[in-house]
Structures are given as C-alpha cells and as structure tokens.
Amino acid sequence: MHRHTAGYMQLMSLLAQIHQADRRLTQRVAAGASPRVHRTLSAVEELAEGTKLWCCAAAVMAWTGGRRGRTAAAAGLASVAVAQLVSNGVCKQLVDRRRPPKDWIPHDEVEDRPDSPSFPSGHTAAAVAFTAAVAPTWPLPGGLCAIPAAMVAVERVQSGAHYPSDVTAGAVLGLASAWLTRRVPRLVLRLWL
Length: 193
Fold this sequence. Notes:
By secondary structure, the protein is an all-alpha fold.
C-alpha cells in the first residue's frame, strides 16, 4: 500500500511539473512571435485545417511522382486517418483537458480557438503522421512537409489552442500512426501468407 501511495505522489509531482512547464512555454511562445511570424504561422495552420494541406500534398505527389508518389501519398493519407481517429476520436474523449487559460495569451486569436478538448493536438498529429509516413518512401517531399508540420505545431501553442504537452503528445501519436500504417499491412500479409 505504501508503494502505491509513493507512486501516486510521484505521479502528481510529475504532472505539476509538466503543468508549470506548459504554462511557462505557452506564455513565452504566445508572447514571443512578431506580427509577421504570427501571420505566417496562422496562414499555414489555416491551410492545414481539416487536413487540406496534407490532402493537396498527397494529390501533387500522386500526380507527379509516379508509383513512388502514389505509394507515398497513400501512406501519408492512411497515416493521417489513423492519427485523426486516435487523437480526435479517442484521446480527446478520454482526457477531456481544457484549453490553456485565455489570460495566458496576449493576443485576440485566442478567441478563435475550438471548444473541443485540448489533449492531444489533432493538427500536430495529422501533420507529423503525414510527414513521417511519406519520408521513408520519398525523402525529399517528406523533408519538405516537415517544414509546415513544424510550423503547425508551433502555431497551435502560439495561438493559445494547445499546451506544449498537447503538441508533444500529438507528435508522438503522429509518429505512431505512421509506423502503424507502414508496418501493420506487412505484418498481416506475413501472417496470412
């Protein structure tokens, strides 16, 4: 019984430290962007809203890249679907974390954020999932996709929509989704054949 109490206390201490780091980083990132950077990040996030950016990138890859492009596009879109299902359909429902407090964010973009739970960042999960699934098949477009993916992750904190830990969890989910969508079909085929 004593070990369980000590473990619980350690977990509570860790969560308190994460909350403090989230507060400091959120406030620093939200206040630190120049108006030009702020506009650029917002424009990229707007393109990524509803996975539009990743669907367009997949279409360009499929159209211009031959078989490799179609394979990369299919892997990217499948990974996005898994990431969105897990982040928005499962995790947000289980965790139900509130968005960062509005008084932490020194600009009015905080008024435009969604009402849905904060944890994890579905935008980041989709961005990382697409990029990580494309890169092994076609490294150059995968590397290019990493740029807007990173911008989306930063924007989610800068706008006050997410805590840094939400974005980190979204990135981990995106990586896991890419890994699953690339590995599971091979494992299934190996088991059936």
